Amino acid sequence: MMTWLNLIIACGVAFLCYLLWLMIPILRSYRMVQEEQRTRRLARAQKFKEAEAELIKVQELVRIGAEKHPDQTAMLIEAYFLLLEGQYLMGHIPDDGRVIRQRPGTVFIWPKFWRMTADNGILLAIPSTLVTNCVDISSVIHFDNGVQVDGATEPNVPIRALLLADQSAWLSKSCLATVVPQSEGDEVERSFRLIRLPENTSVRRS
């Protein structure tokens, strides 16, 4: 009786060893796949980081160039927009967009067809020249319902818009916008996300 029991146990152990032997290549392949995916994620993250650093550098050059040559501002901004679009199409910008952080008083490029969503309250100054000859500013500046907008009535007075957390807006024309302090001594950094509008958006096709 013990002989048969020992034989059954031995067969069971042998079978388990055989299964383990069969699984070794599968486990190795799984590990290789995991390692390859990890490598790809790291490489992709590095591309995102490098692209963001390049965009920040170019944005600063555009800002300086616009200060020195105001008449070239539109051309400089358009060059930045084309660089941004190229980086996105090459997969160097995440599908969920760019997270931008700006201190009050700083100028940044707000590219057309990129939706801004505020992480926290942010007051923006948008140049009124953006809507020159426009009957309605909503044809150029597209806000979510509930966004507080102070439309400019004078040519050199900027349009002000207050976006609360999770409120969004996007433009049909690129511009240099400014983060406005909301109180005296306000130096709290504001963050927002810029997400590219899909290709099938009507304004992109027009």
Protein model, in words:
The protein has 3 helices and 10 strands, in the order H-H-E-E-E-E-E-E-E-E-E-E-H. The protein has helices at 2-68, 73-89, 202-205; strands at residues 98-102, 107-110, 114-118, 122-126, 141-143, 148-150, 159-163, 168-171, 175-180, 190-196. Helix 1 (2-68) runs antiparallel to helix 2. The mean pLDDT is 83. Strand 6 (148-150) and strand 7 (159-163) form a beta hairpin. The chain has 2 domains: 29-95; 96-197. The radius of gyration is 28 Å and the shape is elongated. 43% of the residues lie in helices and 23% in strands. It is of the alpha+beta class. The termini are far apart. It has a 5-stranded antiparallel beta sheet, with no helix packed on it. It has a 5-stranded antiparallel beta sheet with strand order 2-9-4-7-6.
List the helices and strands and how they pair.
Elements: H1 2-68, H2 73-89, E1 98-102, E2 107-110, E3 114-118, E4 122-126, E5 141-143, E6 148-150, E7 159-163, E8 168-171, E9 175-180, E10 190-196, H3 202-205
Antiparallel strand pairs: 1-10, 2-9, 3-8, 3-10, 4-7, 4-9, 5-8, 6-7
Helix pairs in contact: 1-2
